[in-house]
Write a structure and sequence with these properties.
Length: about 180
């Protein structure tokens, strides 16, 4: 019998110094909803959901092209909301540098997911960093005046397992793919 690996996603991690700076810059803000813990901050490339071992191994094999992608700078800009700032269900930090390159990484990850037998993602990729999930929706307009101006070099992606537990969700790194430096 084939066993499930778990709830899997691929993402770009934030370096520790960026996490600390972002936590410092957002600490004085009144952020509505369920705030994502700083340990879980990342830029999602693709959520796969629960997958079995065979699908997981095929997915990992499809990620080898990442090792030929040059590293690139990422810069966080302002805050925004999905679906819009007037009725936001998600508060996010936007990407003002590196979005095109993140889109290319997403294409590689998406191709690997489909080659592993998963259905194509039905939503267009919009790189962002989720800061809070808001239920019911709220107007986050005043927060959109904030600017973050945080930059780092993207030089790897990580495949994580999302583990639910008594202390909330935890993201456990399973595999890492380094890019060209």
């Amino acid at each position: 019998m084939v066993e499930n690996v778990g709830r899997i996603f691929a993402a770009v991690p934030l370096p520790t110094e960026v996490r600390m700076a972002l936590a410092d810059r957002t600490s004085s803000l009144t952020i509505p909803g369920k705030v994502v813990s700083r340990e879980n901050w990342h830029l999602t490339l693709r959520f796969l959901g629960t997958v079995d071992e065979v699908t997981y191994e095929r997915f990992l094999a499809g990620l080898s092209p990442i090792e030929r992608v040059p590293s690139f700078p990422i810069k966080l800009g302002g805050l925004g909301g999905f679906p819009n700032k007037g009725k936001a269900t998600v508060l996010w930090a936007g990407i003002i540098e590196g979005a095109e390159e993140l889109g290319r990484l997403n294409e590689i990850v998406e191709e690997a997911a489909q080659a592993a037998g998963l259905e194509p993602e039905d939503r267009p990729y919009r790189p962002h960093l989720t800061l809070s999930r808001i239920r019911p929706p709220k107007n986050i307009g005043p927060l959109t005046a904030e600017t973050l101006d945080l930059r780092w070099s993207c030089h790897r992606i990580v495949v994580y397992e999302s583990r639910l537990g008594g202390g909330g969700v935890r993201y456990e790194p399973l595999e890492m793919f380094s890019m060209l430096r």
